[in-house]
Automatic annotation (TrEMBL), chains A, B:
It is an enzyme of class 2 (transferase). This is S-methyl-5-thioribose kinase. One of its GO terms (molecular function) is ATP binding. Keywords: ATP-binding, Kinase, Nucleotide-binding, Transferase. Gene3D superfamilies: 3.90.1200.10, Phosphorylase Kinase, domain 1 (3.30.200.20). InterPro entries: Aminoglycoside_PTrfase, Kinase-like_dom_sf, Methylthioribose_kinase. SUPFAM superfamilies: Protein kinase-like (PK-like). One of its GO terms (biological process) is methionine biosynthetic process. Belongs to the methylthioribose kinase family. Residues 34-279 form the Aminoglycoside phosphotransferase domain. Its EC number is 2.7.1.100. Pfam families: APH. Transmembrane segments: none annotated.
Length: 395, 395
């Protein structure tokens, strides 16, 4: 059943802010300029800026997919998950998140920092921009969150209550289906260019299905840390010297490698796009991002390790093995996310805007990379980058 | 803080039963004979039998360890976990459990079938008895529960609520500490024969700590199915043609291999005892139980597989790999449980009743088996049995 609550409208935003003293202290509502910038389909997003340049953003979850209407309800509880993630992640990694100003649980409205001076990382990569250090920032963000919200940073009994409290069945199901199943099983809602028919079908072998099954099983059973849960480059804002992860609606306790994998999968897509556009320098730079992200994750995680809450059997040798396993799992999860961006329901604009012929070449390179990541199982960021470089060069 | 509730006493049992019509219908309280048979330290257990031979058992959890008193509180919530396990497991594997007659949540009293015509499997093995088929029954029990309460048998969204509802932090911590940490890290409360000092210390290498860490991490993060959670041979009753698992106070969502591992660890201990007693025939029989249990588990699991709720990527190849991985994990978890029975806080009477010299020989054989299971990583029940046979023959 669709939940009923009052939706915000631009002309009512100032009054809403005035009614919430914590927010009213941040902007002068008498000079407020309000712009709705969400896609309006799943969330309403109001950028609020006053005459003196101060601002904040209000984001309200809709209880249904607006394009379809109330007949496709979509739980607004995802805003609870996002608020939880900002609140919990903010304790350990505030510099990598928008400042969080509060959550209105009755109307599913999040209030947070105005980051309109940043741009979405996906768009920047698509345009051929370089943001040096963004990948490393995300690596450090995941490391902090992974350490401080999981087995190594939280006392065992307390952790169990956190895990139980952060379940998110509806949102997890979306990832389970769209990322970890449908690209490999086929589905009515899959779509892709006609030219990619053979490539898409080549993903549906028993061997690749089993590999996807293994990752899906890990996603469904391994509660390692409070993940962002949807950390693709469209969930990251960048600006010189600043990297912020947002849109953590998919937050839940899952396998840490999944958060590392989504940016990796985007680097593959960026490389494929750069290759067909002849943007060699940018492509070569994108190929370095796998290691930039992983190395920063690993260094940050190692720096936190001396604080492990239970060092009795979580020793140095365990840490080495755990890091190696997490790196392997990252490569495999990255493959599933890359696959869905070519053949699944939810593509990303990186390749969609290309002309049909280069678009098909790029799509095929991504698919071939996916298959090698799942069948050959490269173990390190460098090996994953090498596989992607080989496949996009084949074009 | 210790919970306050009224404890049962033998002379008040008949009145208690009369006050509960479901129970009163099962026995004639006017001719009731009540015997308290629990160790009286953690639980009160009343066997109630009437003049016509009908009976039932009441089990009440104490809120503290009676030997120490209220200064060592011990959550009676474990009775909730046990009731949940009987109720849930009973839907799929009733023939391997005591019939469950209900739970009094206010006083933490479980009512169940009187199984005094059975005996505890540990005792039977210790005495050199053979109960053919008991190991296979336990394998089938674990298979049913694993399939029907986990990813393969429960729809994804419903499963997440089940997992969250079955958290059991205090009881899990006991296993995490006593089984998966202390034998390998050393602990004040570890104890063992003086003769085993070197063997006990040999468990505390970085390599074995890391192996224990890996298993502990799996135990703490992998929510695969609603486990029994403490399925050693002291939690199993046997009689010709009947095998019943009880005492599921440790039930929680964890790695399936853990439930398979505890009986395996007991088979190692039984073999070590048989060897020093020269009970070769019984020892050779015990060596077959690893495969008996595993093969029954695997066959039952395969028979359920066609009902997998989501066959899209959980295909046949996935199943083969999942079974192989589960078998490997079983061997490793078995090692940790075997180790704690020699050097940890909670030994079992299997070896403790031996004379000091054979007891040390048997203990050493178990320790050497533990080390090989964790370092050489045998992959199958047959290989685990072979390792245990070699080590107990060395004595």
């Amino acid at each position: 059943m669709t939940e009923q609550y009052e939706l915000l409208e631009p002309e009512k935003v100032a009054a809403y802010i005035d009614a919430h003293p914590d927010l009213a202290a941040r902007v002068d509502t008498s000079t407020l300029d309000v712009t709705e910038v969400g896609d309006g389909n799943l969330n309403l997003v109001f950028v609020c800026q006053d005459g003196s340049g101060r601002g904040l953003v209000l984001k309200q979850a809709l209880p249904y997919v607006r394009l379809v209407g109330p007949s496709w309800p979509f739980t607004p509880k995802r805003a609870v998950a996002e608020a939880r993630a900002y609140e919990v992640h903010g304790r350990f990694a505030a510099e990598y998140l928008p400042a969080f100003y509060g959550f209105d649980a009755a109307r599913y409205i999040l209030a947070m920092e105005d980051l309109t001076d940043h741009r979405v990382w996906r768009g920047a990569l698509t345009d051929g921009e370089r943001h040096d250090g963004a990948a490393a920032d995300i690596g450090r963000y995941v490391a902090r969150v992974a350490f401080h919200t999981g087995v190594f940073g939280v006392e065992a009994k307390a952790l169990k209550a956190l895990v139980a409290g952060a379940i998110s069945p509806e949102l997890c199901e979306i990832t389970e289906d769209l990322v970890l199943t449908e690209p490999f099983s086929g589905a009515e809602r899959n779509w892709y260019q006609d030219e990619l028919e053979d490539a898409a079908r080549s993903l549906q072998t028993p061997e690749l299905k089993a590999a996807a099954g293994e990752l899906k099983y890990a996603f469904m059973t391994r509660a390692e840390a409070l993940l962002h849960g949807d950390l693709h480059t469209g969930s990251v804002m960048v600006r010189e010297g600043s990297t912020r992860a947002f849109d953590s609606e998919f937050a839940f306790y899952g396998p840490i490698a999944f958060d590392l994998a989504l940016p990796w999968s985007n680097f593959v897509v960026t490389m494929a796009r750069d290759a067909v556009l002849g943007r060699d320098e940018h492509g070569a730079w994108a190929a370095t991002l796998f290691e930039e992200l992983w190395d920063a994750f690993e260094a940050e995680f190692r720096s936190l390790w001396p604080n492990v809450v239970d060092p009795r059997v979580y020793n140095e040798l365990f840490l080495e093995r755990w890091l190696a396993q997490t790196q392997r799992d990252t490569a495999a999860f990255a493959a599933t996310e890359a696959a869905r961006r070519i053949v699944g329901l939810a593509h990303a604009p990186d390749l969609e805007a290309l002309d049909p012929e280069p678009r098909a070449v790029a799509g095929r390179a991504v698919i071939e990379t996916v298959k090698r990541l799942l069948l050959d199982r490269p173990e390190t960021a460098a090996e994953v980058s090498a596989v992607a470089r080989e496949e996009v060069a084949r074009g």
